[in-house]
Inverse folding.
């Protein structure tokens, strides 16, 4: 149940960010829900592999290279899902940064103690 709630929150954040950022577009709530599911799947499968392969760059930049990895995952989602669009790397970087911040705040606020 927690996973479904987090996916719904992520889908809402994706919709809001697509409205706020001119370089990001989402066709509908269903598309943003698909983006949230694919993002969760890629974060579980592809991201650990990318982190391992780019470990030296991540260590040299004190973890800042993780922002690049997140942007690459957003660009991969852009390529995979037809109703979701990002206009370039910098928009993907900004989108992933804002999405991460929003998810952190919302998940923390909705967490049971």
């Amino acid at each position: 149940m927690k996973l479904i709630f987090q996916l719904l929150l992520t889908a809402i954040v994706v919709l809001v960010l697509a409205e706020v950022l001119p370089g990001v577009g989402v066709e509908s709530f269903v598309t943003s829900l698909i983006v949230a599911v694919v993002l969760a799947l890629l974060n579980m499968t592809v991201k650990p592999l990318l982190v391992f392969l780019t470990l030296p760059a991540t260590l040299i930049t004190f973890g800042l290279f993780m922002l690049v990895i997140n942007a690459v995952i957003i660009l991969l989602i852009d390529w995979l899902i037809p109703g979701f669009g990002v206009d370039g790397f910098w928009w993907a970087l900004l989108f992933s940064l804002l999405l991460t911040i929003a998810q952190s705040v919302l998940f923390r606020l909705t967490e049971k103690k």
Q: What stands out?
A: The first helix runs from residue 2 to 20. The chain is about 80% helix and 5% strand. Residues 2-105 form one domain.
